[in-house]
Amino acid sequence: MRILVTGGAGSIGVYVVRALLNRGDDVTIVDTFNDFYDPAFKRARLAAVLAGGRSPAVLGVNVADAPALQQSFAQARPEAIIHLAAWPGVRPSIAHPLLYTRENVEGTVGVLHAAVQHGVRQVVFASSSSVYPKATPLPFREDAPCDTTLSPYSASKRAGELYARLYHDLHGLSVVCVRFFTVYGPWIRPDMAMWKFTERIIRGEPVPLRRTGPGGAEVKRDFTYVEDIVRGVLSALDRSGGFDIINLGNNTPVPLSRFVRLIEEALGKSAIIHEEELGAGEEIATAADLTHAREALGYAPTIAIDEGVRRFVAWYQKEFLPKFPNGLAPSPYWA
C-alpha cells in the first residue's frame, strides 16, 4: 500500500515508518524538520532508526502550506494517510497559541481536505490524552465529554478530532483518531520528562516533581512505550471503514516519584528532588481505559515501565551521548 506519513521524521513517526517499510508498504514522509528541537537530532534519528532497511521518500513540506501539501499528495499518490505532524507540548502552546492553531488545526484540515480531493481511503489521526478535561474520572474512556480543554495544544487536538468527524460525515472519509498517552522510548523528544529527568540526574541538577500544592497529590502519567503505540497505529490503519476514536495507552498510571526511582536505578545515581506546583494546562493524572482498543484493534501493550526506562537510559548513555557530546542546540520554544 502507498502510505503518506506526516511527521514521519518525528519521535513516533520514524518508528511507524520503519514498521510500514518492514511489512512491505511504500512510504512517503512529509516533515518540515522544524526547530521545536534541534533539526540535526531529527535527521540523526531518521538515519539511525531506518538504518539497514528500505528507504522512504522524504518531502520537506509543512502540512499547513496547503499548495505544497497538495503537490505532495499528487506526487505520492497515497492510498492511506497517517497524520502525525503537529507542534507538541502543553506549556509552549500557552505561549504560542496562534502558532499551534495554524500548524495543528489548519494543518489537519489541509490533510483531510487533500485526502478527499486525492481519493484517499483511510486516515489515522494522532490525537492526545490531553483532550480529556480536568477531573475526568480515571481511567479515561473515549465517550467521556471533551467540551473543555486545558491548553491550546489540547484544543488543537480536539479540533482535529471534530474536523475528522466532519470530513467523515460530509465526504465519507474513513478516519480513526488515536489518543496517545505519554509516549516514550529511545529517540523521544528532548522536551519530555524522561529525557529531562535523565539529563538532570546525570548532571547533578534538581529534578522537578510536581504536585497540586505543598503536600498535595502527586502527578501520575500513563507512560506508553513507542513500540506499543506503533502496533496500535498500524492496527488502526488496517481497520476498514467508518469513524472512531480509540485510546492508545498503557492503563498504568505511574507516580513521577516512582518514575524517577526507575531512572535512578538504571543510571546508578541518585536524583536531587525539587518539588513544584502543577503547571497551567497540566492534568494531575492520566490513565487510558483500553476496553475499546482491545475490542476494536486487539491492542494490548507489552512493555512495562521498568523495562521501558532501562531501554531509554541505555540508549541515552550508549548512543545519544557519544553522537551528541556537546548536547543539542537550544530550542526557542522551551527550556
- The strand count comes to 13
Q: In what order do the strands lie side by side in the largest sheet?
A: 3-2-1-4-5-6-11
The name of the CATH topology of the largest domain is Rossmann fold
Protein structure class: alpha/beta
β-sheet strand percentage: 15-25%
End-to-end Cα distance:
40 Å
Explain this structure.
- It is a single chain.
- With 335 residues, this protein is of the alpha/beta class.
- It has 2 domains: 2-181 and 224-248, Rossmann fold, CATH 3.40.50; 184-221 and 252-285 and 302-323, Alpha-Beta Complex (UDP-galactose 4-epimerase, domain 1), CATH 3.90.25.
- Helices cover 42% and strands 17% of the residues.
- The chain has a 7-stranded parallel β-sheet with strand order 3-2-1-4-5-6-11, sandwiched between helices.
- Helix 2 links the parallel strand 2 and strand 3.
- The longest helix is centred in the N-terminal third of the chain and has 21 residues, at 97-117.
- The mean pLDDT is 97.
Q: Notable features of this structure?
A:
42% helix; 13 strands; UDP-galactose 4-epimerase, domain 1; two-stranded parallel ribbon; single chain; seven-stranded parallel β-sheet; globular; 2 domains; 335 residues; alpha/beta; Rossmann fold; 11 helices
